[in-house]
From TrEMBL, chains A, B:
PANTHER family: FUMARYLACETOACETASE (PTHR43069:SF2). One of its GO terms (biological process) is homogentisate catabolic process. The keyword Magnesium applies. Gene3D superfamilies: Fumarylacetoacetase, N-terminal domain (2.30.30.230), Fumarylacetoacetase-like, C-terminal domain (3.90.850.10). Residues 142-411 form the Fumarylacetoacetase-like C-terminal domain. Its EC number is 3.7.1.2. Pathway: Amino-acid degradation; L-phenylalanine degradation; acetoacetate and fumarate from L-phenylalanine: step 6/6. Substrate binds at Y146, R160, Q258, Y262, T368. It is an enzyme of class 3 (hydrolase). Keywords: Calcium, Hydrolase, Magnesium, Metal-binding, Phenylalanine catabolism, Tyrosine catabolism. GO terms for molecular function: fumarylacetoacetase activity; metal ion binding. This is fumarylacetoacetase.
Length: 434, 434
């Protein structure tokens, strides 16, 4: 395996590069040759999950490519023949990049190796529609940030004090909390409405019952590609080299359970029933052309949170809601990841500054991504202002919060010239409480 | 492997049972034949970590016992030849109990098998003093509760309002939050004083620096022995069958970092730099004789948190502090686990009631265990009332919070008739910030 240089990597990002897989060349396709996101899949024919890469409307089986001698790794072990990406990711950034360069070459229009070998192609490719997609990584730890200024301000205004909506610590650090890793599920997994304690305004004591204010949180999450040892912080300037890639993340939230339980130690049961992530991890390398400046930070952060250059990414995001049986989904929010106040690099620097160790596969949620306008908020709580202003759905009906049978979809993509680097979707249908 | 019945288990708890390992028969020994706690160890001669049981001043190597055909399991795989207990624990409660019964018999005074076979004994036993003890389980998830009424009241009085020290939700549910599993370390691991943001009273903005209010929290933690699937809560009456055993836990806390960061999502960097647990897991079976009634709960908890019978355990606990170079440690707190308001069963029922899944090896901290008297508080924050009343140490000097070089030790035991079931110790020495 040769270590790719800068121009090898740049070539994988060339907007003019096309694939011999026609569907990948469609301008509206999430998975063009410039993307090459990693995931884990299985098929009816081969139930053993293995690593794949999405290209057009196909999944390329990397375990099969490696077995065929077409994908070189630094060691002989076929780390693609695993049910999670962790062992591959642990091989390090040079390897991620080498595999990206090799795949981009194999899939390029002018490369005959796979293109002209029907037997090999049939072993390597599966239609995306026929693949069962699994959680792409084993997640040792899940942390959720709270890094959208608009979101924090909206929530503070609703639940605390509209005049002092943003708490004083918010502008000084990327506030975060530990989430529950065990209940992170892959897109498509049904989400059961949780039961819990609800404190109703007209009753002195809480009652037990099904959540009445079920909500989503539109987020992205980044996956740790290289951990750090206990006691050895990651500097802000080095942090992006520790990130493997990004997924969409829906931090399902039971607002009524949350409001009663969260003081003083933060949300717990209101979040731990499910967190959905999209199955394809879009690498930071694929996102490089979409790097933009982060918002101006005022006051200037403390030294350990400073970095030069651009560390935000221009990722268009939307949320769709489709009631059970409805033919069409309604887009209920449109926003962009670039609005986030704190960058991923700052989040990781803050996470580790006290010495906390991270591990390959750790998931770091961005926090709800709300934009500056009323239709760019990343939760129903904000979009409907706690159900005071219900949303009208295109298929009829209104929503304050989520109803049973509703299908919630997050989508995201970076718009290039004539192509887009997409995240696919992050979907969940809500099923009734037990 | 035969499944032990009630009388087999009772026999392992017989106070009159003695071991042919003399040190185990000492009334002050933590590890008599009635205890048989599980851990993971390695030795200078054999660096590969494996499962052991503490008995007197010795460790019995269960991998070696199994290899010698003296310890039967339901399948042939030697799950003791692993660097964590998870695979053994996953075999289920019948197996834990069978192994306990088999070990109790092998180690009993009247059993000749090991007692009279010097060659075998030399393969199986290591002096505790010569064993390197490892983290006993891989911990997929770590949750920390807040279940001592005295602790919650003390903290509320100090930081919020002495007149309304206990928040209204506290009496209705075992409040908890997700901790950071990656930084749970085994007793003996040095603890580095964390850096972080400190908000000093005389400055408008926070400064970055080493924690000035480093503290301990005296806790126990229980280890999940049988998990539950997502969406399938564990009923309160069934919860104890899901618990493998208990360790001592020191939830190191940076009070100044905590006070600035914890609103509104709870503590994060103030806790994630280290959590120390004791290396020996004392099984719930060994604790059975020390079961006592929990405190009366008023108001009566909601239905899902109710159980009949006794679900507290009489575990004496103490905290010792030894400054660097001092010959003697000072006992700075004495309390008892039986004071805890919420039981472990209630904690686990609440943890899963919304559908959250748990996994074998999950660690659930009790929360700081403070008793009703001023010398029974489980943190320096409470013992010194935020450094207002410094403690005098026997070796000279005083402490408001922890200083570099201080060695903090938690100890715990259940007092039987002529023996005690001990937890060993949970120790950490604080080293200076980087």
């Amino acid at each position: 395996m040769s270590i790719p240089n800068h121009s090898d990597l740049q070539a994988t990002l060339d907007p003019a590069r096309k694939s011999w897989i026609d569907s990948a060349n469609d301008a509206a396709c999430d998975f063009p040759i410039q993307n090459l996101p990693f995931g884990v899949f299985s098929t009816a024919q081969q139930a053993q999950a293995r690593v794949g890469v999405a290209i057009g409307d196909q999944v390329a089986d990397l375990a099969a490519l490696h077995a065929a001698g077409l994908l070189r790794l630094p060691a002989d072990t076929n780390v693609f023949a695993r049910s999670a990406l962790n062992d591959f990711i642990a091989l390090g950034r040079d390897t991620w990049r080498s595999v990206r360069v090799q795949l981009s070459s194999l899939l390029a229009k002018e490369t005959a190796t796979l293109r002209d070998d029907a037997a090999l192609r049939s072993r390597v490719f599966t239609k995306l529609a026929d693949a069962k997609l699994h959680l792409p990584v084993d997640i040792p730890g899940y942390t959720d940030f709270y890094s959208s200024k608009e979101h924090a301000t909206n929530v503070g205004a609703m639940f605390r004090d509209p005049k002092n909506a943003l708490l004083p610590n918010w502008s000084e650090m990327p506030i975060c909390y530990n989430g529950r890793a065990s209940s992170v599920v892959v897109s498509g997994t049904p989400v059961r409405r949780p039961n819990g304690q609800l404190k109703l305004p007209d009753q002195e004591r809480p009652v037990f019952g099904a959540c009445r204010k079920l909500d989503i949180e539109l987020e992205t999450g980044f996956i740790i590609g290289r951990g750090n040892a206990l006691g050895e912080p990651i500097a802000c300037k080095d942090a992006e080299a520790h990130i493997f890639g990004i997924v969409l993340l829906n931090d399902w939230s039971a607002r009524d359970i949350q409001q009663w339980e969260y003081v003083p130690l933060g949300p717990f049961n209101s979040k731990s029933f499910a967190t959905t992530i999209s199955p394809w991890i879009v690498t930071l390398d694929a996102l490089e052309p979409f790097r933009v400046a982060q918002p101006v930070q005022e006051p200037q952060p403390l030294e350990y949170l400073r970095h030069s250059g651009e560390h935000a990414f221009d990722i268009a995001l939307e949320v769709l809601l489709r009631p059970e049986g409805a033919a069409e989904a309604t887009t209920i929010a449109r926003t962009n990841f670039k609005h986030m106040y704190w960058t991923m690099a700052q989040q990781l620097a803050h996470h580790t500054v006290g010495g906390c160790n991270t591990r390959v596969g750790d998931l770091m949620g961005s926090g709800t991504i709300s934009g500056p306008t009323d239709d760019s908020f990343g939760s129903l709580l904000e979009l409907t202002w706690n159900a005071k202003n219900p949303l009208s759905l295109g298929s009829g009906g209104t929503r304050g919060f989520i109803e049973d049978g509703d299908e919630l979809t997050l989508a995201g993509w970076c718009q290039g010239e004539g192509y887009r680097v997409g995240f696919g979707v992050c979907v969940g249908v809500v099923v009734p409480a037990i």
